Amino acid sequence: MSLVVQKYGGSSVADAPAIRRVARRIVAYRDAGQEVVVVVSAMGDTTDELIDLAAQVSPSPPGRELDMLLTAGERISMALLAMAITDSGHEARSFTGSQAGMITDASHGRARIIDVTPGRIRDALDAGAVAIVAGFQGVSQTTKDITTLGRGGSDTTAVALAAALGADVCEIYTDVDGVFTADPRVVPLAHRIAQISHEEMLEMAASGAKVLHLRAVEYARRYNVSLHVRSSFSDRLGTLIAQGGAVFPIGPGEFRTSTSEEEPMEQPLIAGVAHDSSQGKITLIGVPDVPGKAAAVFKIVAQTDANIDMIVQNVSTEITGRTDISFTLPTDDAPRVRHAIESARDELGYLSLEYSDRIGKLSLIGAGMRSHPGVSAGLFAALSDAGVNIEMISTSEIRLSVVTEREDLERAVRAAHTAFGLDSAEGEAVVYGGTGR
């Protein structure tokens, strides 16, 4: 008997017909003799609506109470889905994150999982029931308060449960047929990637691909959890994220063996093009070019718990002995980072600070880049032909990222996708549902 963990996003459980459709898929797995654990997000735009409601009541709601409010969305989904499954003749038991054993730190709104104790989930499975878990939430080990994992946290809930239960596969259901070579909403000719490594998927998620949450991919790579990203609106095979030779279910009673890694000469040069329009750029102008100043700057940034992405430091001029330091970060983190740096201006000794939230990041990802020179030249030529200017450049072994003006970003993504031969010959990709909020 195989154990499958399934995660359904908000668009997959957006209304009563969608919930019944999901229930039928789950029941098909149970009828085939497979154990099923289900993680659900809030219905449709419920989380956004709750955030809007909180803002109408309080301009700055306490983190503890906001977490308590937001977790209500997933509890609604799990209870309704349990009812739908019960009506089909199968037992289903719903659990909140804390009941499911999702133990986190005490950070509200962005808690991290520190332990998973799924005893009650295992008991439900042993009793022949489908276990349904509210995603995105847990309970603090120290304060015992309810916490949330941040947007996209239901993916992480599902992967953490799959690792703790030793599941054969973790299926991530969304509103597209898998992981695509680019966001099909931006590049209609993007095509589905049949299989991708944890390493490549990690780079894509970190570079802005929204189909999988970054922390979920990190968790899957660390604990070698096989992932299957697919649509809840079709029965098509999605994208497999697994090590070569892994055997796991791909449907009720169906199994698949992932392919081994291809030889470097056979690997596709570029697996995909990711983009992120939620980045901001901070530039410190006139920083004294002496040992320790960069360390002092980023020590202060680290204390804000912000995630820094790209960093560029200019060569200082001999006359002034000063340099400029630029770095990018999520726009949500920018206000507290700016406040911290401005408060330490006398200590850091810089002349001025500039901030822009009108930037975007484009990234090429592919293990084939290791053995193929000329990727940078190809990207820069494509962006030049498209009239896109580059502000910053960053590279890793399998990733090349550039920062552009936000208004140029989507044009840049389409140009890069075409330049590296990723456009599909089969027509436009299908996006089944979701509002994009």
Structural commentary:
- The chain folds into two domains: 3-260, Carbamate kinase; 270-419, VC0802-like (2-Layer Sandwich).
- It has helices at 16-31, 46-57, 63-87, 119-126, 153-165, 198-206, 214-222, 293-302, 334-343, 345-348, 375-385, 406-419; strands at residues 3-8, 35-40, 92-95, 102-104, 113-116, 130-134, 137-140, 146-148, 169-174, 195-196, 227-231, 239-241, 247-251, 254-257, 272-276, 279-288, 311-313, 322-330, 352-356, 359-365, 392-396, 399-405.
- A hairpin with a 5-residue loop joins strand 7 (137-140) and strand 8 (146-148).
- It contains twelve helices and 22 strands.
- The chain is globular.
- The strands form five sheets. An eight-stranded mixed sheet has the order 3-6-2-1-9-11-12-10, with helices on both faces.
- The relative contact order is 0.12.
- The protein has 437 residues and is an alpha/beta fold.
State the CATH topology of the largest domain: Carbamate kinase
Output the CATH class name of the largest domain: Alpha Beta
Identify low-pLDDT runs: 262-266
The oligomeric state is single chain
What general outline do the C-alpha atoms trace?
globular
Number of domains: 2
CATH superfamily of the largest domain: Acetylglutamate kinase-like
Backbone CA Rg = 23 Å
Strand content: 25-35%
Number of helical stretches of at least 4 residues? 12
Structural class: alpha/beta
The portion of residues assigned to helices is: 25-40%
Q: Distance between termini?
A: 38 Å
The major beta sheet can be summarized as:
8 strands, mixed
